[in-house]
Specification:
This protein is mainly alpha-helical. It contains eleven helices and four strands, in the order ααβααααβααββααα. The strands form two sheets. It has a two-stranded antiparallel ribbon with strand order 1-2. It is extended, with a radius of gyration of 26 Å. The N and C termini lie far apart (109 Å). Its EC number is 7.1.1.8. It is found in: Cell membrane. It is a multi-pass membrane protein.
């Protein structure tokens, strides 16, 4: 027993216990992350074999040049294995893909494929590996959402890039966060789950589907209100409004001084 006690007090015992604790903690975290990803993933459930095959033909004809014949990725484009149907539906459905030219980020433009073709491309990419799915309609129904809570979540997680009014904003190196006005509900949801361009991924562990619906409800409620005060001034808030008032006030003051001095002379 005395020998065992001396071994437990070995100077490297603490280091060994620390490494063991880190190993166990890391393993548990990895297991939990895998479970969450599996719960939020989509394996082409609901897609027919015909959809997958037609999607593959469309992919080879229109996407393989950059993404590779098997979507494994090339120097010109990333791998699409495991990105899920939601990523394809967002990128292709908003016209960002296929890209017209290389640049800091994909530009939104009129889409090249109709809804059926977009769904077929999504089916093929979803068949390559599990990834975020196209959201269910229940999570896109803004009537079930809470705009007030969605506003809080948006200001905490999104406003620093997209502006508190969802008007978008500039980032670094020619990149930008796009305006969220006029964006379809499902594309907003898909952007949160897939993290396109420079946007972080907000999976269901970060922001549950119900919270995503609340954020969408806030954006659509805000969008429906318009600009009852007149000019929106870029939806920049009180800073832009204060600057405009200050500039107009200063111009009016200088103009009045010039007019008064000209009359006295």
């Amino acid at each position: 027993m005395k020998a065992l006690s001396q071994k437990r007090r070995h100077p490297f015992a603490f280091v060994a216990l620390l490494l063991l604790g880190l190993l166990v903690t890391g393993g548990l975290y990895a297991a939990a992350t895998t479970v969450n990803q599996a719960q939020a993933s989509n394996v082409h459930t609901g897609y027919s074999t015909e959809d997958v095959e037609e999607g593959q033909r469309l992919f080879v004809a229109n996407c393989a040049t950059c993404h590779g014949m098997n979507a494994e990725g090339t120097d010109a484009g990333p791998s699409l294995v495991g990105v899920g149907a939601a990523s394809v539906d967002f990128q292709v459905g908003t016209g960002r893909m296929p890209m017209q030219m290389q640049g800091p980020q994909a530009q939104q433009k009129p889409r090249q494929f109709n809804d059926e073709q977009t769904g077929q491309l999504a089916a093929y990419v979803a068949s390559l590996g599990a990834g975020p799915a196209v959201p269910d309609d229940e999570y896109l129904d803004i009537d079930q959402g809470d705009p007030a809570r969605g506003g809080e979540l948006f200001r905490i997680n999104c406003a620093m890039c997209h502006n508190a009014a969802g008007a978008g904003g500039a980032l670094t190196e020619g990149k930008y966060a796009p305006s969220l006005h006029g964006v379809e509900e499902r594309h907003i949801y898909e952007a949160m789950t897939t993290g396109p361009q420079n946007m972080p991924v907000f999976n269901d562990s970060n922001i549950p589907p119900e919270d995503k619906r609340d954020i969408i409800a806030f954006l659509k409620t805000y969008e429906s209100q318009g600009t009852p005060g007149g000019f929106s001034l870029g939806f920049m808030g009180p800073v832009a409004e204060g600057l405009l008032i200050w500039t107009l006030g200063l111009a009016l003051l200088i103009g009045s001084m010039v007019w008064l001095t000209s009359r006295s002379s």
